[in-house]
């Protein structure tokens, strides 16, 4: 971490690399907005700790971090967050096709139910962003 | 899938790309061996379905598939399989450092306990393969 | 597996044993339809691998497989799939009463929350199929 | 357990300590009502076993039991039951602030997704009961 | 429940139907013994509530209840209890082959890792009871 | 957070409130020591983020935070961390009896398996610290 930046600034900058599109940005903004009335510190932890400290480490690139994030969220079945991170994953360099392949790859590890539910979430996000995937 | 190969042959070939080292191979062999007396069909499903159909799709490379696999196994906390797939991940092109970073990246999504247990597993596999990671 | 049938044909036939009613069929069709635009291979895996290879094994009957399937889905809390498989379970020979008893049996193993949510799903499916259960 | 009371009576009395407000009562009543047509015994188990035997033990007070209950439900991600038990927790002596702090405390153990979804549930319950939390 | 029996007596009788062999009995006894020093009420709840109220309901037979129990424990990955209930399942009328088939049936729903770990547990229990399974 | 302390210092101080006994301290030290060779930043996140930011918030006391922590770990089934936090819970003001009651309270929410495994862990920790619990 540069000595001239606080981790909050580092976090905001890193976050913008994942949300620099209308769709990802607006999804993330809705989360922060909703936290304001009940637990604003959680919003700060997301920026300062998750993006400022974890995501900002140099040993793995943004695209790979998005792949790891999508994989854990499919496995947990936490769909609102999966929608957000399919969005941030597209912004961070994953193609729609790669995201679909990653979800499909999880069938032998999580079984079909989690995968089917995740593909539904992906369809909705892709429709919002006007993304079509090639199917084979 | 080539028309000249059955999915079993495709699966064996794909599997070898992930297990072409003494350590990964011997870990995988132990699983197949153990299945023989009780449920040999499960061993065939792993080769024919998991490796022959899922892993063999072209839309995502071996290294990325290893990253997705490690992420789901850390999240599930299934440690024997995590040990195997840290092994196959190393063979498929992930560095020890990238594996550690991927596990660390999961802290904001799974919390510390799963991550701490996964890092213990990684340490054991790295020691067996004589891999050292740079820490920062 | 008969040498005169491919596993796809075996899968379709087995699948029809579980979906041979308007309600189960239409639920299953909706899943396949939805997969077509995004991941048609997953639909094929369900027919060819899940029904053609796993469900088609002879060591356990359709009714018992439905019981196992409902039990894992209640435990995972994946409700859209639970609705489908309460439907296929009814078609495969489980009575509404047996399904309710199986869900209730899970209280000591999963706790009340998963069971309460599963009973809500069962109520909806039973209402759609015009099934009433005797309560004691 | 007093020799003059059955565990059903003990359970009803203990339950009333957690649901003695319009909001908690009506949420609990909806569950019992819904169980009547499909599995009334589960409703009796909740009163007689959960409240009559488990909750009625003397080694831990009502407020602490509510804290334990909320923590497991956030971890499991079972949102309908979390809504009920944020309600019963408020009735049993937890403040809105303490509930928010308990949910926030889970970030290092469950990660952010479960916590964000739980805070949404808390917001809805607090709004229904006219509770405001101080944020810092 | 007969009016001449308490639920404790009903529970003990039902429990004996599942543990009436040296191996299942001794596994269950070890659990009760271990609970005595720390939480004897939990041992009573298992007999009185789990066996006396849940298992004793008439709508589903012992063998089917064992199938449901094994399915949830494979899904949860709680291996000490899985070992116990593979044991009780054998006593309650499931064959070794049926247990293996039920575990294998879970591959499309839980993925391979949980299934592989459960098959290891089954192997150990079968060896202790001198059971061999036919593999195909 | 006092302006005269960094969050690392705040974290160390807070951590010491939970580990100020030989047993809890040595368990925590083993974790930090083990992380040094593979992922020292995770050890820093535990001190700086988990203890320095989350645990240090004023809205919930140390004892209550220990109760929440134990509840989530029983639910997740992550036993090495459960052993640590039964230890820190004892140091933070929970009695052995309260810890046992909290674990028992989870039966209606997680089912018996997680609870039985957690009680085994508690027995081991209590034996190490020479703690006896009154059973009723």
Automatic annotation (TrEMBL), chains A, B, C, D, E, F:
One GO molecular-function entry: peroxiredoxin activity
Top-level taxon of the source organism: Bacteria
InterPro entries named among the record's database cross-references: 4CMD/NDH-1_regulator, AhpD-like, CMD-like
Domain (Carboxymuconolactone decarboxylase-like): residue spans on this chain: 40-123
Pfam family, one: CMD
Name of the protein this chain belongs to: 4-carboxymuconolactone decarboxylase
Organism this protein belongs to: Exiguobacterium oxidotolerans
């Amino acid at each position: 971490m540069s000595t001239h930046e606080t981790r909050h600034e580092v976090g905001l900058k890193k976050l913008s690399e994942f949300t620099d599109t209308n769709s990802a940005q607006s999804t993330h903004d809705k989360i922060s907005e909703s936290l304001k009335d009940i637990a604003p510190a959680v919003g700060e932890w997301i920026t300062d700790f998750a993006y400022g400290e974890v995501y900002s480490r140099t040993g793995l690139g943004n695209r790979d971090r998005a792949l790891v994030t999508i994989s854990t969220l499919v496995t947990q079945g936490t769909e609102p967050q999966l929608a957000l991170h399919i969005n941030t994953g597209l912004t961070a360099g994953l193609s729609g096709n790669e995201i679909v392949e990653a979800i499909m790859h999880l069938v032998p590890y999580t079984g079909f139910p989690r995968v089917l539910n995740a593909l539904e979430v992906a369809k909705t996000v892709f429709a919002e962003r006007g993304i079509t995937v090639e199917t084979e």
